[in-house]
């Protein structure tokens, strides 16, 4: 396997272990499958318990923010959750989108998908669905989503630019995302960068904050803003798994900052069919709607006369 495939396989195995754990006896966190420290449980995760739609069975404490709280989801919206895990953010999103909305969760870990589907069944939610898929190649048609949310997941993806370009593709014109992730200011020590557990724990795969925001802007997203920021302090008992006391002291003195940020950005509201593809609209008018493939890149349009990427 390539390095990318190895990385994905490692992350998939770690999160499969978490999905199969008993949350009441194995406090897991974004630092991996319960293997870092008894203190890890609250290092990154936020308190969801006050949010409407919260489900304790779906809360595996794997996040680093509250993207659904800041997402501005409206009744009737179609919402996509990237790396949906056991479904926590999907259920909160569904409470905002209501019975006329639609919520789709995508995760590449079969065990998480199974857990999320069972949770949705137990909650009797008919308009929440979960799909097995890769965030770098989303199993969705173009221009079908009003809001994308994600909680501490994109930093696990090897090709973050490709993942964000997929977000751009599936958003409707004028749609937006609210994504929580871990970013850096300064360089991590090699021992942390090279540790598999620290990658699966959302730290060693994190980008510099300027680079992360730069990718978003270069892809063409608009109105980029940081909605929330909080520092993440890794306890010495975690760092001691990878560094000695002298190295930990040097890391503390280096000024390197690890932060959780929640970022919002929008897709342009302008139609994105070029003039050459808009000519196809006249042809489309002669076809029955059932003959039209939604999101067909050759047509460049979502539906009769409705432009999309």
How would you describe this structure to a colleague?
- The chain is an alpha/beta fold and 309 residues long.
- It folds into 2 domains: 3-270, Vaccinia Virus protein VP39 (Rossmann fold); 272-309, no CATH class.
- It has helices at 3-19, 67-70, 88-97, 110-123, 160-170, 190-193, 196-200, 209-218, 236-239, 245-253, 275-278, 280-284; strands at residues 78-82, 102-107, 128-132, 145-151, 171-185, 207-208, 222-231, 257-266, 301-303, 306-307.
- The strands form 2 sheets. Strands 1, 2, 3, 4, 5, 6, 7 and 8 form an 8-stranded mixed sheet that branches.
- Helix 1 runs parallel beside helix 4.
- The model is unreliable at 24-41 and 274-309 (pLDDT under 50).
Percent strand = 15-25%
| Terminal Cα span | 32 Å
**What is the name of the CATH superfamily of the largest domain?**
Vaccinia Virus protein VP39
**Could you tell me the mean pLDDT?**
79
Looking at the structure, the CATH topology of the largest domain is Rossmann fold
Tell me roughly what share of residues is in helical segments. 25-40%
**Largest sheet descriptor:** 8 strands, mixed
Give the low-pLDDT segments: 24-41, 274-309
Order of helices and strands: HHEHEHEEHEHHEHEHHEHHEE
Structural class by sheet pairing and helices:
alpha/beta
Radius of gyration: 20 Å
Characterize the overall form: globular
Number of folding domains?
A: 2
DSSP, total strands: 10
Oligomeric state of the chains present here: single chain
What is the correct CATH architecture of the largest domain? 3-Layer(aba) Sandwich
Just give the CATH class of the largest domain.
Alpha Beta
Task: Give me the number of helical elements.
Answer: 12
């Amino acid at each position: 396997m390539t390095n990318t495939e190895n990385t994905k396989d490692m992350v998939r195995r770690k999160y499969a272990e978490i999905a199969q754990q008993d949350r009441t006896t194995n406090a897991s966190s974004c630092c991996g499958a319960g293997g870092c420290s008894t203190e890890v449980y609250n290092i990154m995760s936020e308190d969801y318990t006050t949010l409407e739609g919260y489900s304790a069975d779906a809360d595996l404490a794997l996040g680093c923010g509250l993207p659904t709280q800041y997402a501005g989801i409206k009744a009737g919206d179609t919402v996509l959750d990237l790396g949906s895990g056991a479904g926590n953010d999907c259920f909160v999103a569904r409470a905002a989108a209501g019975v006329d909305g639609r919520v789709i969760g995508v995760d590449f870990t079969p065990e998480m998908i199974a857990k999320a589907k069972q949770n949705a069944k137990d909650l009797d939610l008919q308009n929440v669905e979960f799909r097995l898929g890769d965030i770098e190649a989303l199993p969705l048609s173009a221009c079908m989503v009003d809001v994308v949310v994600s909680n501490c997941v994109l930093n696990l993806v090897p090709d973050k630019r490709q993942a964000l370009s997929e977000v751009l593709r599936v958003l409707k014109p004028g749609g937006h995302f609210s994504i929580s992730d871990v970013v850096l200011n300064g360089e991590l020590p090699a021992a942390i960068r090279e540790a598999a557990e620290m990658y699966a724990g959302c730290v060693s795969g994190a980008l510099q904050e300027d680079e992360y925001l730069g990718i978003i802007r270069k892809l063409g997203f608009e109105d980029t803003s940081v909605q929330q920021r909080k520092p993440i302090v890794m306890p010495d008992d975690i760092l001691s798994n990878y560094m000695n006391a002298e190295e930990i002291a040097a890391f503390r003195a280096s000024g390197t900052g690890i932060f959780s940020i929640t970022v919002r950005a929008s897709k342009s509201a302008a139609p994105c069919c070029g003039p050459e593809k808009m000519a196809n609209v006249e042809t489309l008018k002669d076809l029955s709607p059932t003959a039209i493939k939604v999101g067909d890149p050759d047509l460049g349009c979502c539906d009769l006369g409705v432009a999309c990427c």
